[in-house]
Design goal:
27% of the residues lie in helices and 27% in strands. A 6-stranded mixed β-sheet has the order 5-4-3-2-1-16. The chain has a 6-stranded mixed β-sheet with strand order 8-9-10-11-14-15, with helices on one face. The chain has a two-stranded antiparallel ribbon with strand order 6-7. It is globular, with a radius of gyration of 18 Å.
């Protein structure tokens, strides 16, 4: 497997999918101009909208979504793999999914992933979030191969934002062969300052994998503030690219899947893992491994 250039684009999505699609196109073109053949956008690329009624009125089905149509066009025109970190998609059952989509160099959809873990939290600064009130959680981990456009068979594992705090998801994907893990996000400033860098580096180290994490950043139209600091981390846990701020930006780094194989050979913890029981626990035991598809 050969090395390739990956890009994470940092955005400050507002409440208008149409305006956000324009910003997305500008940043994707910038990333492709720097030689990136895999380009990732952040969580909720299409829009960040706190008001439930406005949110319901803004989002539509995948076949009518402007972010989807713009991404298909760009992927095909530029000959790249374009990974929309997530956008809100209206499902056939009338519920919303926080959905990641990967488009190939021919513009076709290669894979989709619906965010599994919902951000239902109450923070010290008074922020309160209930993602489960707006979105239906996904039920499947996803790993897919990306091959073509100068990429020779890398395997990509999907996640979105709050999924980062659930290491069993990334372990399942690594065991399924993922050598690149994705964590597009819209981390709050408070949680980002506390945990963003250390969690991303930990997921890379634990799994001997690259981690690409495109982020939202800054003060958004709907009043929320996100942390920014998009990162690309290598399998040894080293930060190889960072947008060290919260402004819109593009970061690019080389991804070499052979480095993932080398890290796993040096520290073969994926092979050395053993099942075990918990003696004396007070809560129902969590599953040690998940299933990947």
């Amino acid at each position: 497997m050969g090395a390739f250039k990956a890009a994470a684009i940092q955005m400050r999505s507002g409440t208008s999918p149409e305006r956000n699609a324009v910003d997305l196109e500008r940043l994707v073109r910038e990333a492709a101009g720097q030689g990136a053949t895999y380009i990732q956008s952040p969580e909720m690329t299409g829009a960040l909208i706190r008001d439930s009624q406005a949110r319901a009125a803004s989002f539509t089905s995948e076949d009518k979504d402007i972010i989807v149509s713009t991404s298909r066009k760009l992927a095909k025109e530029l000959g790249v793999f374009l990974h929309i970190g997530s956008t809100a998609i209206l499902r056939a059952d009338g519920k919303l999914a926080n959905r990641a989509l990967l488009f190939g160099p021919d513009g076709a959809t290669i894979a989709t992933y619906d965010k599994i873990h919902m951000f239902d939290v109450d923070l010290d600064n008074g922020e309160s979030w209930r993602e489960s009130a707006a979105y239906e959680p996904g039920t499947e981990a996803v790993v897919t191969e990306i091959s073509g456009a100068g990429i020779d068979g890398a395997r990509l594992g999907f996640a979105v934002c709050y999924d980062l705090r659930f290491p069993q998801l990334f372990r399942a994907e690594a065991l399924a062969g993922a050598d690149v893990l994705s964590v597009p996000a819209a981390f709050t400033r408070q949680t980002g300052e506390a945990h963003w860098h250390v969690l991303l580096r930990a997921r890379a180290i634990e799994n001997g994998a690259y981690v690409v994490a495109a982020a939202q950043g800054g003060l958004h139209e709907d009043g929320r503030e996100t942390y920014g600091h998009s990162l690309i981390v290598d399998p040894w846990g080293r930060i190889v690219a960072e947008a060290a701020h919260d402004e819109p930006a593009v970061i690019v780094a080389e991804i070499d899947p052979a480095q993932s194989a080398a890290a796993r050979k040096k520290i073969p913890n994926l092979k050395n893992a053993r099942d075990f029981a918990v003696n004396g626990g007070q809560a129902e035991a969590l599953p040690l491994r998940g299933a990947a598809s």
